[in-house]
Amino acid sequence: MGKIILYSALSLDGFIAKPDGSVDWLHDPAFHIEGEDFGYKAFYEGVGTTLMGNNTYREILNMDIPFPYPETKNYVFSRFKDTKDTAYVQFAKEKVLDFVPRVKAEAHKDIWLIGGAQINGLLLKAGLIDQLILTIIPVILGKGIPLFSGEELSSKWVLKHSQTYANSFVQVVYDYEKTD
Asked: Where are the beta strands (DSSP E) in 65-153?
């Protein structure tokens, strides 16, 4: 069984995107460090499946690049009934909380929860996220899409690792503290 890992960048004030869904602020040339991928390659090698909401999927498509996850199974959650699967993406037709536990039980590698905020909040509330890998970008957006949305959420996490980078990024890795 794979772990569900929410791997995401966020602003200092906790946003994963601007209000319109844009993540252009992540691509500031001042943040570039030659040859540094911030652990992405090692993380992605352990991933066999991705999960994302429809808005996140549409934002990826708007980036005008080839689909970035062709080696994995990719599931997109959408309320639109007319969505059609593609060469790389299967649209999940079931409710998130019915579908995800089954995917998790069948996974042989880790599952990357790409987001967005709604699916992140649902899975957090259900206790289905096993690990958070968050890269904090030294930008304040003021408003935007939060890491988690939904009703009041509460859970405890244990810090496993943290790393700072020369460009002022801070990456933290937390494991979910399950309480029974």
From this structure: 73-77, 90-92, 110-115, 131-137, 145-146
Other C-beta atoms closer than 10 Å to the C-beta of 119 total 25
Within 10 Å of residue 9's Cβ, how many Cβ atoms? 20
Helix/strand/coil for 123: helix
Gap between the Cα atoms of 75 and 113, Å rounded: 10
Question: pLDDT tens for residues 43-60?
Answer: 999 999 999 999 999 989
User: And the tokens for 69?
Assistant: 């996850």
Tokens of 9: 């960048």
Closest CA to 44 of 112, 96, 116: 112
Query: Which of these, 43, 154, 49, 47, lies nearest to 100 by C-alpha position?
Result: 49
Beta bridge partners of 58: none
DSSP 61: H
As a whole number of angstroms, the distance between CA 9 and CA 137 comes to 7
CA angle 119, 71, 66 (to 5 degrees): 80
pLDDT value at 152 more than 80? no
- Indicate the pTM of the whole model: 0.94
